[in-house]
Design brief:
The structure holds two protein chains of two kinds.
Chain A lengths: L1 E5 L2 E2 L2 E2 L1 H16 L5 E7 L7 H6 L4 E6 L8 H14 L2 E7 L2 H14 L3 E5 L1 E4 L3 E8 L4 E8 L3 E5 L14 E4 L11 E8 L12 E5 L9 H11 L2 E5 L1 H5 L20 E5 L5 H7 L4 E6 L5 H5 L2 E4 L2 H17 L2
Parallel strand pairs in A: 1-4, 1-6, 4-5, 5-12, 6-11, 7-11, 14-15, 14-16, 16-17, 17-18
Antiparallel strand pairs in A: 2-3, 8-9, 9-10
Helix pairs in contact in A: 3-4, 5-9
Chain B lengths: L1 E5 L2 E3 L21 E3 L1 H17 L5 E8 L3 H11 L3 E6 L7 H12 L8 E5 L10 H9 L3 E11 L2 E8 L2 E8 L2 E5 L11 H7 L4 E5 L7 E7 L9 E4 L4 H11 L4
Parallel strand pairs in B: 1-4, 1-6, 4-5, 5-11, 6-10, 7-10
Antiparallel strand pairs in B: 2-3, 7-8, 8-9
Helix pairs in contact in B: 2-5, 3-4
The chains are: A alpha/beta, B alpha/beta.
The complex binds flavin-adenine dinucleotide and adenosine monophosphate.
Adenosine monophosphate (AMP) binds next to helix 1, strand 4, helix 3, strand 6 and helix 4 of chain B.
């Protein structure tokens, strides 16, 4: 059966999560006995030009909705349009990114259609009539396997949980209209302001280097930033101890009340590993911890830990990573 | 303003969880319960909105769906300053956000209530779903803004901020509206002794929850896979070359 992936744009460019949902839809369509992957792409005029990128990850059909008033996200119009598209086609599953935008959009669509939604899913399995989805509960202290019977089953996928896999398809574009007049929407996004410099976002970076109170002062975050820069593809995160003290912006906070991340590599520098912090990063593929306390909880969780003074270890690691990368 | 705040009673996340014999839930014996973190922010925001407005006619109704013990959570909200409570009673709270949303919407949408605002948490700390708010709004047909980190209300209109990945989104909306509240907007107050005394006299109505049919069920509940972590590569800067080698050759992340 066919599957749907709802793509996500930021300032006219496709976000990585868009390729992840297309990859998931491809996987689900194959598992459900084969079928086409439709990607829904809603945006401003000219956005259809992005459709080929979705085809590269396995979208057979890209349904393009272009409208001058939809350059920015519009929750009501996007939800009505996705709901209408799901109503008009018999899909086995529909995938949304569990990004900030997707977590707003998916439950609106599910609510409007009275359909089951498995939110913030890290893995899934699909058969002809049942979809099983893995979703961390109790801030990651337990893992639920959710069961959705019937079609379409809706899922939002945690960014980074399922990496994009190229699977080029002979893609065709179909044009459709917004299902609600943007002028009639009661909620409107009037501004989208980028915070600080354009750095790799925590949700998209394959590597995250995070610092905690062990850094002692805001200025010492330079060590963390330099290590991130040495990796070349890393973002900088922080604990709440640090964001509460204003050393880093609140938006850098990782954990139960901050961002939930699953990078390939998570480097925790001077972080004790409080349960609320672990809640946001324990699904990382590989965890490295640098802490002078060998009994800190993060050291039990880490795949690789170094015990000692971060002020000696981190600069050395930065140097070593630069060396390794220079040799590649 | 007349504001409804939906509160969920959840186990304290500091708890050590074990899996119940049914294998589809956690064992709740011995767990401490309280209102979910973000719901505390939603309640505090409601209290401040009506305090700022001063004197005018305002009412804060707190609503919670759950078993008997849920009334305790409602009492706490009343002791923080809410005016009255509604307990939607059921033995087991379903996991499915839609089933809960249907029950909340049936109560909130019943005629003659005229709420200006319905507030919920961004997500409950037990389910981590973040679905009940927008689903309830969809069923009620109300405007909805999720994960609000900053709010201003003026003459029947609202402006909110939402934190996206690397961006701050500004959203304008019309009242009445349903908002879900992010952390940090207003740190919840502690109940005062006076508040606790006053709460004893405030009304809490209990009626059966009109739960929807769940579309999503829990098939299995497990503790997270044990990380095979805890490997100490070494001590001090001397361990760094070995760490870099492991990251490159074993973990293959470089
Ligand atoms: C409701 C609630 C929600 C919360 N949400 C979050 C959240 O989302 N995210 C979050 O992060 N926290 C959250 N917290 C806070 C959390 O409980 C911890 O307080 C916080 O994560 C601790 O941050 P930290 O590890 O930086 O500091 P600490 O716990 O103080 O740890 C500092 C670590 O640095 C090490 N260290 C010190 N000096 C050195 C040195 N020279 N070299 C090497 N190591 C050194 C120490 O051994 C220690 O392990 C929340 C708390 C509550 C109650
Ligand atoms: N059983 C409940 N009773 C009252 N409010 C609830 C209940 N479940 C969820 N909510 C509200 O919906 C929000 C989001 O919950 P969830 O979608 O489960 O993450 C919570 O923060 C509450 O405000």
């Amino acid at each position: 059966m066919n599957c749907l992936a709802v793509a996500e744009l930021r300032n006219g460019a496709l976000r990585k999560v868009s390729f992840e949902v297309v990859t998931a839809a491809r996987r689900a369509a194959n598992a459900a006995g084969g079928g086409e992957v439709h990607a829904l792409l809603i945006g401003g005029p000219g956005i259809g030009g992005r459709a080929t990128e979705l085809g590269r990850y396995g979208a057979d059909v890209v349904a393009v909705v272009e409208h001058p008033a939809l350059e920015r996200y519009n929750p009501e119009v996007f939800a009505a349009t996705a709901a209408a598209y799901l109503r008009a086609h018999p899909f086995r599953c529909g995938f949304f990114p569990a990004s900030a935008q997707g977590r707003d959009l998916a439950p609106r669509v599910a609510g409007a259609l009275r359909l089951g939604l498995a939110a913030d899913v890290v893995d899934f399995e699909v058969s002809a009539d049942v979809l099983l989805a893995r979703h961390p509960v109790y801030i990651g202290k337990a893992m639920a396997t959710l069961r959705l019977a019937g079609s379409p089953a809706l899922v939002s996928l945690r960014p980074g949980a399922i990496g994009p896999v190229e699977a080029p398809a002979a893609m065709r574009v179909e044009r459709t209209e917004p299902a609600l007049d943007p002028g009639a929407a009661r909620v409107a996004v009037t501004d989208l302001a980028e915070r600080a410099a354009a750095k790799l976002d925590l949700g998209e970076a394959p590597i995250i280097v995070s610092g905690g109170r062990g850094l002692k002062a805001a200025a010492n975050f330079r060590l963390v930033e330099e290590l991130a820069a040495a990796f070349g593809n890393a973002a900088v995160g922080a604990t709440r101890a640090v964001t509460d003290d204003g050393w880093r912006p609140a938006t850098d906070q990782i954990g139960q009340t901050g961002r939930l991340v699953s990078p390939q590599l998570y480097v925790a520098v001077g972080i004790s590993g409080a349960i609320q912090h672990l809640a946001g990063m324990r699904t990382s593929k590989v965890i490295v911890a640098i802490n002078r306390d060998k009994d800190a909880p993060i050291m039990k969780l880490a795949d690789y830990a170094i015990v000692g003074d971060l002020f000696e270890i981190v600069p050395r690691l930065t140097e070593e990573i630069r060396k390794v990368r220079a040799g590649q | 303003m007349k504001i409804a705040v939906c509160l969920k009673r959840v186990p304290d996340t500091e708890s050590r969880f074990t899996i119940a014999p049914d294998r589809v839930s956690v064992d709740t014996a011995g767990l401490k319960f309280d209102m979910s973190d973000f719901d505390g922010y939603a309640l505090e925001l409601a209290l401040r909105l009506n305090e700022q407005q001063g004197g005018g006619p305002g009412e804060i109704v707190v609503l919670s769906l759950g078993p008997e013990g849920t009334q305790e959570t409602l009492r706490k909200a009343l002791s923080m300053g809410a005016d009255r409570g509604i307990h939607l009673a059921c033995e087991v709270v379903p996991f499915d956000g839609l089933a809960i949303a249907e029950a909340l919407a049936a109560e909130l949408g019943a005629g003659g209530q005229n709420y200006d605002l319905i507030l919920m948490g961004r997500n409950a700390t037990d389910t981590g779903n973040a679905t009940v708010g927008p689903m309830t709004a969809a069923i009620l047909g109300w405007p909805c803004v999720t994960a609000v980190s900053w709010l201003e209300l003026k003459e029947g209109k609202g402006t909110a901020h939402r934190e996206l990945e690397g961006f701050t989104e500004t959203v304008e909306f019309r009242l009445p509206a349903l908002l879900t509240i992010d952390e940090g907007i207003a740190r919840p107050r502690l109940p005062s002794l006076k508040g606790i005394m006053a709460a004893k006299k405030k009304p809490v109505d209990s009626r059966p929850a009109a739960l929807g049919e769940p579309r999503v069920t829990v098939q299995a509940m497990e503790l997270p896979p044990e990380r095979t972590g805890g490997r100490i590569v070494g001590e001090g800067p001397e361990a760094v070359p070995e760490l870099a080698r492991l990251l490159r050759d074993e973990a293959k992340v470089l």
